[in-house]
Amino acid sequence: MNRAARGAGWSDWQPLADVGPLSAGVLAELLDGGQAFRWNRDGDGGWLGVWSGCIVRIRLAPDGTLEWSAPSALVARAGGGLPGYFGTGRDHPNAIDSLPWRSDAHLEKCLAEFRGLRVLKQPFGETLLGFLCSATKQIVQIKQMLALLAARHGTAIGAIDSTPVNRLPTWPELAAISEPELRACLLGFRARHISQTAQFLAAHPGWLEEAEALPYLAAKERLISLPGVGEKIADCVLLFGAGRLEAFPVDTWILNAMARRYGLDGWKPAQVARFGRAHFGPFAGLAQQYLFAYERRAAKAAAVT
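Above: the chain sequence. Below: its structure as tokens.
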């Protein structure tokens, strides 16, 4: 195998089994389309991602499958974490085939447009933090907030070109940070919600782990009891952080898509979410990602014409 393009101190490129083939556009949607917020394009044409104690570089192989490389000191951790992070233990082809694309022409079009798109499974606590930062913000702004939280309040887990790379602060660490310090990370009103959630979790050890293990509806109800967590954020956390593929997050993109494509004009988000779970079935969250990606691409295409 070729040495990683980062040079000395990085592992050889290794294949990531059972992911792909993907196009460059689908890979960008997977890593930078709103599921996760700590992936950035690398100067060498790949993607650099950070989560928990992992630093990983991902690139497309010539056949469209994925290859990965990590700092030598973190190879074992990255190699152990990547399959779960990319959901390779799921039967992705069967999940796609189980969606109602045979009777839903729009869904069929979305599946064809973003062939290979999947749902990541990220650390539950980090996913909660990311989506608490997401209220009324765009992806680039959420990424800025999390980068500042990591740089100012996280712990170094490695380095890239001699520049330290920090993990995000844990919830116990966040509980020790003042609200003004959190606001200094561009969090705005979200600082209050994050501070209050951190204080609650500090007083209730094991609460998040218990929530992650609960059935979908019970887990969602528990998350909604946290400051700043509504139905959409709860569904995002459960979909992208707990692998609950029955969750169907409804944001503005999905609300508009369901009105335009499925005739649900005037429906409230909670009604649309219930429709989504009933119409798309146990893998509704997977369908949601294809619908979401299609609407964003259609909006970008319309903006340049």
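The chain has three domains: 1-89, 90-120+243-305, 124-241.
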